Amino acid sequence: xxxxxxxxxxxxxxxxxxxxxxxxxxxxxxxxxxxxxxxxxxxxxxxxxxxxxxxxxxxxxxxxxxxxxxxxxxxxxxxxxxxxxxxxxxxxxxxxxxxxxxxxxxxxxxxxxxxxxxxxxxxxxxxxxxxxxxxxxxxxxxxxxxxxxxxxxxxxxxxxxxxxxxxxxxxxxxxxxxxxxxxxxxxxxxxxxxxxxxxxxxxxxxxxxxxxxxxxxxxxxxxxxxxxxxxxxxxxxxxxxxxxxxxxxxxxxxxxxxxxxxxxxxxxxxxxxxxxxxxxxxxxxxxxxxxxxxxxxxxxxxxxxxxxxxxxxxxxxxxxxxxxxxxxxxxxxxxxxxxxxxxxxxxxxxxxxxxxxxxxxxxxxxxxxxxxxxxxxxxxxxxxxxxxxxxxxxxxxxxxxxxxxxxxxxxxxxxxxxxxxxxxxxxxxxxxxxxxx
Length: 437
Known about the structure:
Layout: E1 2-8, H1 13-24, E2 29-34, E3 53-63, H2 69-79, E4 84-88, H3 93-97, E5 112-124, E6 127-133, H4 138-148, E7 167-168, H5 172-188, E8 193-202, H6 209-219, E9 225-230, E10 233-237, E11 242-247, E12 250-254, E13 256-261, H7 266-278, H8 280-298, E14 307-316, E15 320-330, H9 337-344, E16 352-353, H10 355-365, E17 376-380, E18 386-389, E19 394-398, E20 403-412, H11 418-436
Antiparallel strand pairs: 1-6, 2-3, 2-9, 3-5, 4-5, 4-17, 5-6, 7-8, 8-16, 8-20, 9-10, 10-19, 11-12, 11-18, 12-15, 13-15, 14-15, 17-18, 19-20
């Protein structure tokens, strides 16, 4: 059971974001889930934004399982229904689909980490709440809150760190060779779509993760953004995509397939939006993944409740239009919330169809371990509700090894062109590389 301290909050969300990051810097484990709700989104799919910020600092109780991941998580929650924050890397596919990694993860996030935080901060409209365990004294909580409310220091914004970055790019020839092999599997009907990713690596890299995240949030605000510190490992994410959300007995998934840039003026912007809406390739990719998600959901849904409530909807973000579908169902009373996550992981938008075959070819042909990229971060509430993102549009940083990884991918289908898909990967990565420079 947690106690709560509440204070009115009239600061801008940008100021609150800076304070949370400054305060979280002293913790070995810190996760900030950031909806960027001040971004002025034109409109968003249903249930996209739940809060301004949700932050978890310190570990009150933690779980680092190396096997029987989902059973361990269920046991933890059953023993103490609490707020839990978690990450699952793409490597958890070994447990869900028996597809094992060929490469080591250069960044080094463990496959899974679940923790109940010492301090939980919820920022809603006009109020900041500090939730803390009953074992913690009220005086200690008030002291933590005072530190949190201190103005962010000027030097915090990166001036004290001299950044050093050099990123190596995968070549088009390397990309094309693998692309043609994947196309061979598509032609034979082994798969119908595969999300093929390449990795942009920076070695001997020095950055200020917090200052970099502030730049990322300012340049590319996204509703499922996250700043995550796991010891000396960092995730800086501007994800626009939800993996899975549970509220009561309702479960929704909102995969993204289909992206196009924003126009320079309102007329061009509207033309590009219509182009995406009517583009046969993008619609085909989106519908294929929507069908895969429906199939995943049927494993844990009440009979007859799986439905597509929004097919190929086009929504506008600061720099791009995205094609997003919403699939929903009622969770079977015989299936736990954690098992619903297990049955849907990894998300179809980052694998392909059929999922297990796509996973096998991803492991065969990709030259790196995706690690936390294509995985998820999010939270589980004491009531058993949860909300999980898709880790895309992200910078991964190992501060002790001075290594940066910026993976990027696209959906390869029979209609795809190697040059176009390679360019899409480079454009996605370049937007993040520009933030670093």
